[in-house]
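Section 5.1 Outputs to date
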Amino acid sequence: MRRRPGLSVRLKLTLSYAGFLAVAGALLLAVVWVSVLRYVPDKPKGLLGIAPNRYLLERTFASAAAEAMAFLLVFGLVGGWILAGRMLAPLTQITAAARMAGNGSLSHRIRMKGRQDEFRELADAFDSMLEQLESHVAEQQRFAANASHELRTPLAISRTLLDVARKDPTRDRGELIERLHAVNTRAIDLTEALLLLSRGDRGNFARESVDLSLIAEEAAETLLPLAEQRRITLDVTGGAARTSGSAELLLRMVTNLVQNAIVHNLPAGGTVTVHTEAHGDTSVLRVENTGRRLPPELVPSLTEPFRRGTERVRTDEHAGVGLGLAIVHSIVRAHGGALDLVPRTAGGLLVTVRLPGTP
């Protein structure tokens, strides 16, 4: 936005200081004038006629007052310019950092030294904003790169299958169609997951009262055939746990957690437990599964997009795209909740979701 040039803040402060000092000096001289000269006689009363009188004092006082006012004005301008420069020096650093950030350099930090005041508080807040912005931009760039890679894979496979079919007309078309269908289904699932992740990050959804226990039962009923196929015991326990949010997103959250617990529950024959309860003004959902031991350093990164666990599952049904826990984290964050992942000592994972409860 273009603006007409105006006076700088430093010059405005300088003029303000000089003006204030000049007004204060004028008031002081006026007080002296009124308080002292009013008691001096108009004419001399001494024997020689040279005693102090108002006429002589006025001439002497007027010249001295003019010199004092000129000195105060010059002193106010020079001193105000120096003081304003020293006071606005931190603002200059903040402005330079803002320009660097505007040019794309988010790694620069002000790190202003000195005791706490308004400028240093602003500088600290600006540094914190730059740090969060840099982290967010890096996360978005990493997400875009991973998404491009994941979307490129099924498209490349489809092109390869079509090239093979074109070069070999005798190839079984039924097998080709089946493989193309599987690849296309995976691409659609990945696209829907990306859209859902974006929707959860925005948080613009209608809210209603939702019971997590009913959501857990619905998700368990949907995924029961998958659990039985893998010989996994699926239990839903606990009581009502009401929260406010999107029933569709919360169902996807619970479904992703239960599906993740089933798919990564290796070897077969394990258990998955879904528990809901209410603690005061907090509704709690726990999903616990058996399985292989997870390295503690791996667990914090499981909620990052396209980050999978120790096993990459590639089945025709429920093929993982690496966005399950990322979507869960996004939905929990959009509902103002907290997500905790803790590796079990005996193997497997314990996931705890805490959401604001409603009566």
